[in-house]
Amino acid sequence: MELKIPDLCLVVLIGASGSGKSTFARKHFLRTQVLSSDYFRGLVSDDENDQSASAAAFDVLHHVAAKRLEAGKVTVIDATNVQAPDRAKLIEVAKKANVLPVAIVLDTPTDVCLKRNAQRPDRDFGAHVVKRHRAALHRSLKYLGKEGFKRVHVLRSESDVDSAVIVYEKLLNDLRHETGPFDVIGDVHGCRAELEELLTELGYTLVRDDEGRAIDAVPPGNRKAVFVGDLVDRGPDTPGVLRLVMGMVAAGHALSVRGNHEEKLVRALRGHKVTVRHGLEKSLEQLAHEPEEFRRAVTKFCDGLVAHYVLDGGNLVVAHAGLPERYHGRASAKVRSFALYGDTTGEVDEYGLPVRLPWANDYRGSAMVLYGHVLVPEAEWINNTMCLETGVVFGGKLTALRYPEKELVSVKAHQAWYESDRPLVAPAPAERAPDVLALTDVTGLRRIETSVMGAVTIRAEQSASALELMSRFAIDPHDLLYLPPTMAPTATSLRDDVLEHPSEAFAEYLAAGVREVICEEKHMGSRAVLLVRKVGGAIYTRTGRAFFDGTLGDELLDRVRESAKPLFDEFATDWLLIDAELMPWNAKASGLIREQYAAVGAAAGGALPVAVEALQTTADRGVDVAELLARTESRAANASAYRAAYERYCWPTEGLEGVRIAPFQLLATEGRTFHDRSHLWHLETLSRLEGSLFQQTRHLVVDTADPAAGVRWWEELTAEGGEGMVVKPLANLTGRVQPGVKVRGREYLRIIYGPDYTEPANLARLRKRALGRKRGLALREYALGIEALERVARGEPLWRVHECVFGVLALESEPVDPRL
């Protein structure tokens, strides 16, 4: 008797005491796969039969089961499980892990259970217990499927139990044995002619029936097409697309995942009540002219499509709306919903469409994820993911990605077949006076279109936070043309003695295809943006506040303006926008240093040496305090290093005496931006700002395939407590990779993480820091910054520029560890 179970699932054994569950588990599963309620009672109470310990035992059992399932391990629960509430908790564990729960019921006769229990001295409870278990079991049998068990196997006799064989089956989404190569094709939406053209461009040979209709496409070599779903709706020939794709799938020439439009079409074809819109009306009208047999075949085909596939040994995942790594190869309603619809906020945008969370921005999985669903003007890489829905049905194009070559192939739409609810590129808002700002420009839920990464969503609560800061502290919006993005640190190092190391930065850029990077010395100061006009201007912080109050800022601008005269002439401009670092740190952050850092340093410097002296005296008297003394001496040394770390970046200033500016990027001039120029060009251009006010930024160009020189330079910079360096793609704007990552030195990080952060236990804890959200913010803020500069250069109204600047400040309200 074969009991088929998925190769990743939660198996729940159900049966009365004495039914043989433990024996069955030992026979068919590994010892480590089986979690026994008796064993966990023993763990928490030293008595496997102590029923008063059951609640605690099951708490621990559920926790261990969750951890095993999270790790992708089959897990078997050996307990009576005859009560629905007990099973419900296990089903919830399976749901949270996004795996299928399976029930194996041992409906062993009562007399057999009683006989077995009588042979065990630890089972001295009466026959009524077994009878109660079996009564509860029989009441539950017909409801197990409704409770959530995806498969239910019932063994009704000893012979059934003895003959049972466990057979593992791969999940329907597990096609890891399919290694390609593949041609992954975006949303077709009924555009048959464009699909035929794309397949021909990809080298496929179309096969037609006697009526000239395409019914298959034979791939070149051993390639295979993979469709990301949404084959149907909106376009002129949904039946033609289905006839072709169904033929390809049946011939083994293609695979297809299910899209949300197939989901709705199946419900409509089966007569369920659905709202006929978003192009469904066209599919139903077109299919109405097809034979009933074809409509039945379409219903069966679309209903049989799975939500996502894992291919090529786990290196490729295809899902209609994309899929985070934690869902790859899993099976649950949550996984299916994400694969079909993506992750939404529950809100709608100005077009009445769901606001989708940018899951790909935080994706860090090793598998490439290819998907559609979200309309984009161009297919671009985002963290090893790519959306291939380039709007063929709306007049855009139909796009395919060759895998593993990573080559994009596309064909243009023959015409716009359907009017999009949301334009491929959002139109500019209605005209108004160029310098007029309105509250409605920056409040509520907003989607800001950028050239770098499409739409960036700003949530209403983020807008509210930024509004307070902007209205109370920011400079005049006419001067606030840009805010610099946050910068993420490099991936956490696994080296024993450091938290950050440049090797990870170089490896990350190399993996992203960036061969040349520039390493720039990191100045310990405060980020400053300089808007230098021939008359007027501003120097402000990365949160839009004036850097200096009163005349000091005007005096500093005058000195910068005088030095910048050659640049005004070279670029034929009335203004320059410069990104820089202003030093020393205490020029702006004296209050922070005094109240936070110096206070800690003073307290530690006063207390710890005294403690060391007292412990040494105690040790000299023969008292064993060696461990405490060593720990206190280490803390005293750490505190001394902590004071040295922040004192290095502070020096006396009197007015502008002692102030230094290190400019590193010319952001824009009148009518021009410069993010298409290499960072070397920026540094060389700004090196013409001469005088004692300016400090050049030391730098080094590094080949990421041979980064030894960069590692040595970082080691030299940080050996004496230097802050470290920033690693950037030399070419500057380079697709959707991080625009720069900071690699900070061991001693400088004491300022950030505290004096004792280098203790082994603390370093081990800090290595678990999560960088995904910070990196997502860095990319979105960078995109908004570039968009602001481009709008300035195009001469767009101030409120259009301010929308992007405000967006950067709004994103800064995200709850991210400020030490990153």
Automatic annotation (TrEMBL):
CDD domains: MPP_Prp_like (cd07423)
Polynucleotide kinase-phosphatase ligase domain residues: 466-815
Entry keyword annotation includes Transferase: yes
Keywords: Kinase, Transferase
Listed InterPro entries: Ap4A_hydrolase, Calcineurin-like_PHP, Metallo-depent_PP-like, MPP_PrpE-like, P-loop_NTPase, PNKP_bac, PNKP_ligase_dom
GO molecular function, one term: kinase activity
Source domain of life: Bacteria
Residue stretches making up the Calcineurin-like phosphoesterase domain: 181-376
NCBIfam families: bacter_Pnkp (TIGR04075)
Entry protein name: Polynucleotide kinase-phosphatase
Species of the source: Lentzea roselyniae
